[in-house]
Amino acid sequence: MFEHFAQRVKNSYAPIRISFLSEQEEQYRQNPPYKGLKVLHNVPLTHATIIKLSALVAAGAEVTVTSPSFMTPEPTFLQAAIDAGMTWLPLSECKNMPFDVHLDCAAELLDITPPRLGTIELTGTGTQKYQHSDLSFPCISIDLSSVKALETCLGTGEAFVRAFNQLTGKSLAGKTATVFGFGKVGIGIAERLRDIECHVSIVDSDPHKLTEANQNQFTAISSNDIAAVEHAIESSFVVVTATGKTNCIGSKYRRSSFSNCWLANMGAEDEFGDTFSEADVLCKKRPINFSIDEPTRIEYLDPVFYAHNQAIEILLQRSLSNGVHPYPQNLSDNIVARWKSIHNIEFTLEG
């Protein structure tokens, strides 16, 4: 049974690391709020995702699981989940199927049959795609909330450094890095690199982001200052993309400037573009943390996955207009405050 499979996964983590999802599952088991709802779940399939799915199953949802194109599930783990009762379909087979709710990542469900009630999107890249579409349903964005910054600012920065070390065998401590993009992901990566005494240059097109980077003691460079950007790249040990924009590198800068540094993408899009082959960039241009066993440590995902699941209640209880809506601030702030208290950590979140 899937419940027993999920329990074995949960037993591999200290309870404090999965406190939100454990609480949610217990509440849903006592009073299932999603009984009979058909849910399409498109989130990278990892051990953490199994715990998230377990809460949805406890809520009574009929869940069909797929996975975004930028991450192929590990075959043995996927088969074990299927054997335990998880309903799995490749993304290509979901296009014409009716669902009540889409739980999406990177807007990969945007062009399939619209959901009856609405969509909940996890990422910034996906949120932008939904915002630029003429939607016939409401979409709740987890990214447009402070709770998502627990993952992107804290979790992704840690995951980038850990993944780079594992994949290359190289340390980033004391090195020089250029980070494209100073949104939540870029901020998290830059802050984590600074923690290990790495000199970081930030490249962004937004003057406000550049001012913010300067105020945070990073070297800030306008993406339109081609000479300055290429000089930073040529001086770097690693170049990291976190803009969420396709082909923002190859379309603008000389390929030769990137010859002597490691290249890594941390966004869902191919930010390097066709000028760069898959062999030029770590992990064939896919986000490098999704190539290691724990792409983001579960304590950072736990509150975000909790909110992603819980937002279905908002679709059921509120009459939302078509288009994108942020996950409610009062709920998000409460989750962040509780997370800080549970983990005894104090910080100021960006985003």
UniProtKB/TrEMBL annotation:
Residues 152-295 form the S-adenosyl-L-homocysteine hydrolase NAD binding domain. One of its GO terms (molecular function) is adenosylhomocysteinase activity. InterPro entries: Adenosylhomocysteinase-like (IPR000043), Ado_hCys_hydrolase_NAD-bd (IPR015878), NAD(P)-bd_dom_sf (IPR036291). One of its GO terms (cellular component) is cytosol. Keywords: Hydrolase. It holds the Pfam family AdoHcyase_NAD. SUPFAM superfamilies: Formate/glycerate dehydrogenase catalytic domain-like (SSF52283), NAD(P)-binding Rossmann-fold domains (SSF51735). GO terms for biological process: S-adenosylmethionine cycle. Its EC number is 3.3.1.1. Belongs to the adenosylhomocysteinase family. This is Adenosylhomocysteinase. It comes from BD1-7 clade bacterium. The gene is ahcY_1.
